[in-house]
Amino acid sequence: MERKWRWARELVAPAIDWEQKGDEWIDRVATHLSSKLRTTGYGVQRIGDFGPILEFSATTGSGGARTDVRILILSVLDGGMRVWLCGAEEDEDPAVSAIWEEAVEKAAEGVKGASKQHQWTALIGAIPTKYGGDVLRLAREVKVDSLSLSSTDRYCVETGLSGRSLSGWRYHTSIPILVRGVSSGYRWNEAQADAARELNRLASVLSIAWGVSVDVREGAASLDMGERVAPDLVPWLNKEWLEGSPDELPKLDVRVPSWVGNALRKVGVRANLNSAVSVYMEGCRLESDHQSMALVSFVAAIETVSLMIYKEDKCDECGGHTSIAAKFRQTLKMVLSETEVEALRPVYGSRSRTVHTGRLHGPEMLPGALSFSVFRETPEVDFEWRFLMPVKRAARELLSMALQGTLPKRTAFQAEPG
Prior knowledge:
By secondary structure, the protein is of the alpha+beta class. The protein contains ten helices and 14 strands. It folds into three domains: 7-111, TATA-Binding Protein, CATH 3.30.310; 116-257, no CATH class; 270-418, Up-down Bundle (Four Helix Bundle (Hemerythrin (Met), subunit A)), CATH 1.20.120. It has helices at 18-37, 94-111, 188-210, 260-269, 271-286, 291-309, 324-332, 338-343, 347-357, 379-404, and strands at residues 7-11, 41-47, 53-60, 65-75, 81-87, 117-126, 135-138, 142-144, 147-151, 156-161, 169-174, 177-184, 214-222, 251-254. Helix 1 (18-37) crosses helix 2 (94-111), helix 5 (271-286) packs antiparallel against helix 6 (291-309) and helix 5 runs antiparallel to helix 10. The longest helix is centred in the last third of the chain and has 26 residues, at 379-404. It is globular.
């Protein structure tokens, strides 16, 4: 190691799941030291010339001075850890060392207990798109798996740039939905990651169920910090600039379909289904400004569904997947007519040119231009309406079938003749 220690003594490494509980163990060590030595915080850094050696030290006082005593943690090949107690410059003080060793042991005992349950709230709702649409309002409060959803019944008005112009803007009005949930973790920041995953799954599944791009508008926050509240206006918008009242806008009452709760549970345990709905959601986030990448996302969602319907075929020589494009087109026929599928024949090639050669096809190639013509083709605009929108619709309908368990039983793929 690059550092020379005044003294070092190896301890019995705690028998814990380091990948899942290591961060909690470190936090518990720091908490114990704070109660015994009045330390104010801690830091972890990587040191050494070999392997990932972690050096843990506590801090004292307002200046954040580091304690002389440190803990070294070294990962070993079998997935376990080796742990040392060390002194940087001073001789060992047995009384202080005993407190550190006690912290190591108490922390190991603590991580074996049940995690704390954290109540949280968040806001989801329709995201601004250039396509507009009705203002959605959740018609009634509903329990969806472990989450509770209710309408905020408040119109929230926000702005976005109008095309490519710094002097113009467009309004987007929504009625956010309040989500209440409970996630487990030693600290809130650990539970928050679990809450974020739940929210992403919820937004993705509702986007499929309602056919509207729904996303997280205010991330999960512990209820200890207060309940999430939807503002009437974004902070930088002057109410005097608005024409009319948001209350006058037409709104569409929506209900959560009965199958959504079971669908969320499926997405939580099936990696392929989780990937499919997540990449569909990513396409929804991209479609207004990055049409070519949105198409890649929607095609990927359909490809993932195709592998739920047809068994994977691999080349005996190279191990690569075969018949991918054919499976894609055959899967489209489950939700589109023969004529529609034929019209989308160029789609897979467009997707491949984007992925493999960086080719872009949509309006993102013409920022700020309105390229419409009655007498000539406008391929960038045509791409969006002829290809992107139908593929998105097909992806949504296929994913709806997958979520509701109505896809046909998986079978070997048989290419159509000709």
